[in-house]
Specification:
Elements: H1 6-19, E1 28-31, H2 36-51, E2 56-62, H3 69-83, E3 88-92, H4 102-120, E4 125-127, H5 132-145, H6 149-152, E5 158-161, E6 164-167, H7 175-185, H8 201-217, H9 220-250, E7 257-258, H10 259-263, H11 267-280, H12 290-301, E8 309-311, E9 315-320, E10 323-327
Parallel strand pairs: 1-2, 1-4, 2-3, 4-6
Antiparallel strand pairs: 5-6, 7-10, 8-9, 9-10
Length: 330
Amino acid sequence: MAALAPPVAAIRVAVRRALTGLPETGPVLVACSGGADSLALAAATAFVAPRLGRPAGLVTVDHGLQEGSAERAEAVAAWARGTGLAPVEVVRVDVGGRPGGPEAAAREARYQALGEVAGRHRAAALLTGHTRDDQAETVLLALARGAGPRGLAGMPARRDLPGVPLLRPLLDVSREQTRTACAVLGLDPWEDPHNADPSYARSRVRADVLPALVRALGPGVLDNLARTARLVAADNSALDDLAGVALAEVRHPDGGLAVPALAGLAPAVRSRVLHAWARELGAPPAALSHRHVTALEALVSGWHGQGAAYLPGGRRVVRRDGRLTAVGPI
């Protein structure tokens, strides 16, 4: 019996680890574009899930942004059905009219569609094929934007969408391993031309920045960036727990937040308290930025009688009688 190729084994182990401990009912669904990463993930899931007594299906999203996208999506679906995955769905989305650039609009439409399909099938989880290389790119882009700890934590291995967890089993697997696994298994992945389009910052990081870092610092730099994300994520989790307790303690009995209690918090905890409170007030998480939290912070630690801090979602916050109070809409 021939030995299993190490990349195939590594991906199957990663999938088994992700699926272990999920609720016993409901299928797992792989989000698959047909690229090497998601195709290798889908093949591994088709192998592992039945051996764990769990059904596994596939969803492929057609964004309609490229010629032939519908045919490619149907080809991915046909391969999935032939592999034994079920249910299998092709979902067409419209990215027009959504906020943000084309990448953000496509991502929002994709996750919305994936969540809807998962809900319809009462899925136990959605799986995506993000790799260690994607994680390293995410950390570098966060550094370039001047992001705080949340950005430097990269992509979490688990993210909860409405009604279903989204799992990223391959964050410790390299892109090269997924390509090798596809070759070993006789799979023909699709190369998305957007991944090589220099008009996208991530494409430039992938084509130029990461290879330059590897040449200058050695191949371990990718593992180190991914490890940095894991370490920062663990610190974020601890600080978020502290902030959850602190938020309950700084609530003013007449509503809002008590300024003296806020002022007594460590800055890292206070910023998280203000961020969480802004979300409570209805600020959309995707639109809530560092500058909004900084404006709230100024009402506590930089108070000189200034006016309101404005939040996305149409609310504003003022300081009155020793507390922060939300008023609005604007």
